[in-house]
């Protein structure tokens, strides 16, 4: 495991554990529409190092551990960190756009950042095997479809909109860093673009 991955996991875990036992700290730095409207823009980032509970933290950090090496190996640690942080911001920004009229809306978690790393890793190696041997690019499309459905239903407490915002950000930055991916794997790039287009259409139609 690269040192930058260890650093991200370490910082996220330490801050999350701090917040588990300090409700004021948790409320001060979680993603919250009312807080952002008061000018507390730091919440776009700080919410990404907070988690609701130990299970939430473990799942996100384990997933990051699984996909991070592909991105770091293909690019470098600095570009990995840029994709991670930009995807965190992208996830929070989409959450803000969709929920901006709901001042009670709150969320925490590194899911947006991790989703960006997932999508980046899959673009870099579409044939990588995920759970039960599923090819990475199929997993990526399925992940986005699941998030779109969840975003529309709003029947659970999962921040599906942050997943999508992070995935879109990771997708775009990865292609910006290595545009040859478009020439080498046009089918995969196009297939993973379709659910992104679907999200944009749904937002334009006010269906989410």
What does this entry look like structurally?
With 208 residues, this protein is an all-alpha fold. It has one domain (3-204): Rhomboid-like (Rhomboid-like fold). It has 11 helices and 2 strands. It has helices spanning 3-20, 23-29, 33-37, 43-46, 54-74, 77-99, 111-124, 136-153, 160-177, 180-184, 186-204; strands spanning 31-32, 106-107. A two-stranded antiparallel sheet has the order 1-2. Helix 1 packs across helix 2 (23-29) and helix 8 (136-153) runs parallel beside helix 11. The N and C termini lie far apart (38 Å).
Query: How do the SSEs run, as a string of H and E?
Result: HHEHHHHEHHHHH
Going across the major beta sheet, what is the strand order?
Answer: 1-2
Number of domains: 1
Give the helix tally. 11
β content, as a range? Answer: under 5%
Largest sheet: 2 strands, antiparallel
Judged by helices, strands and strand pairing, the structural class is mainly alpha
Number of strand elements: 2
Return the CATH architecture: Up-down Bundle
Terminal Cα span? 38 Å
What level of helicity do the residues show?
Answer: over 70%
CATH superfamily placement: Rhomboid-like
Provide the CATH topology.
Rhomboid-like fold
Membrane topology: Multi-pass membrane protein
Subcellular location: Membrane
Organism: Nonlabens tegetincola
Transmembrane segments: 42-68, 80-98, 104-123, 130-149, 186-203
